[in-house]
Every structure is written in C-alpha cells, then in structure tokens.
Design brief:
The complex is a heterodimer. Chain A is of the alpha/beta class. Helix content of chain A is 16%, strand content 28%. The radius of gyration of chain B is 18 Å and the shape is globular. Classes of the chains: A alpha/beta, B alpha/beta. The interface between A and B is large, with 42 and 56 residues.
Amino acid sequence: MKERLSREVIALRAAREFFDGAVVNLGGGIPTLAANFVPEGRTVIFHTENGALGFGPIPGTESEAQPHLMGANGLPFVPLPGICFFHHADSFAMIRGGHIDITVLGALQISEKGDLANWTFPERGLGNIGGGMDLAFCCKRVIIAMEHVTPKGELKILTECSYPITAPRCVSLIVTDVAVIEVAEEGLVLKEVAPGWTVKEVQALTEPKLIVAADIKEIEL
Amino acid sequence: MTMKKIFESPAEAMADIPDGATVMIGGFGHAIDRPQNLLKALAKRNARNLTLISNSAGVAGRLGIGSLGGKPFIDEEILIENGQVRKVICSVPASLVMSKPNAFERLYREGKIELEYVPQGTLAERIRAGGAGLGGFFTPTGVGTLIEKGKEKRTIEGKEMILEFALRADYALIRAYKADTMGNLIYKGVMRSFNAIMPQAVRIAIAEVEEIVNAGELDPENIVTPGIFVDRVVCIPKEGVQ
C-alpha cells in the first residue's frame, strides 16, 4: 500500500490557496484543520456561519476556551484583534452576497463537471444540509479537501454523482491525499500528485479520464 | 403605562403556549446560544402537536458538541423525545454522530414526525423576511437540487433563482446575554445567531437572559434587539441552566 498524505497535509495544501486578505469559511473535518496552516506572511479573515469574522486558531489550553467564542464546527476559537459578531441573516448575507472569497468543504462525491454531493447518501435516508448549500452555491471559490476514496475504497470523484447534490458545477479545486485536481471547462486537470504516486495510480482511483497538466508536479510539503 | 415584560420564572413566561403552536427556537446549536431553561419549561408544560422552526432538530446537546468540556446540554431533543413535536422546519435534523441517532431520526423513520429541509441561509432569510413584513424572496441556493422541488423559478440578472416564502410563528424562545426592563437585548460573542432574528417574526417573543438591568443601564449604541420585538424576559434562575 502506497503512502498517502495525512489529513493535516491535505489541509496544509488546501491552505496554500489562501491569498493575503482572503475571507475564508472552513467546513468541518479536514477543512477545519486548514486554519492552522495559513501561509506565513499572509493574513486570512476566517468566517463562521454562526456569526463571527476574524478569529484565530483553536486555543492551546482548555482554560483559554470560552463558551461564547466557538465556531460552527463546535470548537472554541481564539479571538483576534478586529473580530466582530453578527446574526444569522447577516452571516448568510456575507455568503450569498459574494463576500466570502474561499470556502473549503469536505465531499462524499464530486462529478467531472464540479457537482458536489456532501450532505447525505441514500442509505441514511436523512442528512444535514446546514450552511453547506449556501456556501457551495455562493462563495467565489469552492475548494474540496478530502480523502480521494472512501474508507471502503469506493471512488468519490465520478463521472456523475449518484448521491443528492449540494450544488451543481460549484467546485474549482480538489485537494486529496494523493492529488490536486483542478475542475476546468474541458474536464478534470491533474496538477499535482503526492510523493511517490504516478498519474496512472491516481487515474485508477478516479472515474473520469484525467487531463494531465503540462506542468504536472509533485505536491510540495 | 408600560407593559410588564419581566416574568418571574420560565414556567410563568411559557404558561399560555397552547397545543398546536408554532414555535421558533433560537440559537445555532451550541450550549451558550440555546434557550435551555425555556425548553425545559416547555417540556414540563407538555404542550403537544408543536411545529418547531429552528436551525436543528436537537442534534448536538446530548452529545455535548458545542459546549466546553463536552458537557451535555438541553436542545430540541427534550421536546421531540417527549412526543410534543409534529413537525420540524430546520437545516440540521440528523444526529451529528451517525452511530448515535437522535430522537428526531428515530421518530422520522417510524413516520411519526414531519420534516421540512431548509438550507441554513434560506432559513435565516425566511425568518428575517417574516419579521420584516415581506412575503418572500428569490435565492440561488438550492437550484438544481432536491430543494427546488415544487418551487417557482426565475432567472434574475442571468442567474436562476427559486422563490422562498417568509416564515412567521406564534412564539419565539431565545437566549440573550442581558436585557433591560424595556426588553432591549444585548448578546455576547456568537450568541446572536438565530436569537437576534426570531423575535421580529413572531407574535410573542420570550427571552431568557443572564441578567436584567433597569432601562437606561444598557448602552443604547450597543443594543442589538430593540425592545419592541421582545414581549417577555426571564432571568435564568439560580437553580437553572447557566
């Protein structure tokens, strides 16, 4: 079995997409970890849909945590100078109004066209839409940070999603434990592979035919 | 003459909630933003056949997700497992931990409770619209998904959108940080969430707060919810959930 990137490294690679001054919303799971990997020299303004803008990482000790300083992921955060609070209608005005530059979300399935399915699957018969649908529809850039296949080895990057979708044609970049793939007009473009992985091996875990970028490289850690 | 807004106990503030009422429950889903004492009093009052409008259907409290130290807290689950709820309008109905189903999921699978899925931003805006006297609005969120089913569609400035209707209710149960005797409210940190938009959209808004002060003691520049939206205020009792 080939070595795959850890959840932290997937988050680190996704965080490289944060430009200086970007307003960023992070979903639960791997995306949450990206808060710890903002590239040096860049300032990112983090948004959480339950009503805060401009917070830092998860506190280092329990005594620093405060009940009213907590993100949508249920974890406490450290307030940074300039933090502000607001209610849900304003929070989603920020999202729908196009004021969030980047959202990093998890995915159950992604289609070749960039359709995203991440809120339910048929066997559960019930799921949580939460704020994910507004984020996927309305943020300027949707980045997916996830493991390339399910724990059972089922493919997640597919020609068509079989699960109910969260938003059609919304994903622009997919960062996984084996590759970085851009969703382009002409199809899925393989830009980077994990150290030790070949194009052929990534293709074997991906249903749609990948277009190999002319400047394909190894993911830099 | 001023209307009496300060109530002695959660039970007194909730004494007229009838069977069949539609009730908005404030907060996002964390211990600090839920009206835990009002929920407890409503469970005790045992009003039946309720419709809840809330972000969640009680998905985190029992698991202690969103409280310091993972301490369990009270959410909608207390009403749902008590069989008081007929329908929930929310964005997050299912337990946050799939292997530990909540009361809502159990009743839903038995066909004993109804669900209307609403994306969170659409839910917030439907409530805001209800409070602002609007009939509804068009949003891009949900186009091409299960959410668009049965909804009017229009292309506005080149973008496909669906019509969503405003939401109003009989009661709102919310939590704030402090109130004054006029019913003006302030919040702390992320407490505003759905708490600061629900009082506008109901007939009777009831707030539980950590402290009640005299009119004039809150800085008017900092008041988030103007008192005319708030009908009843209860200070969280000493023996209550702080």
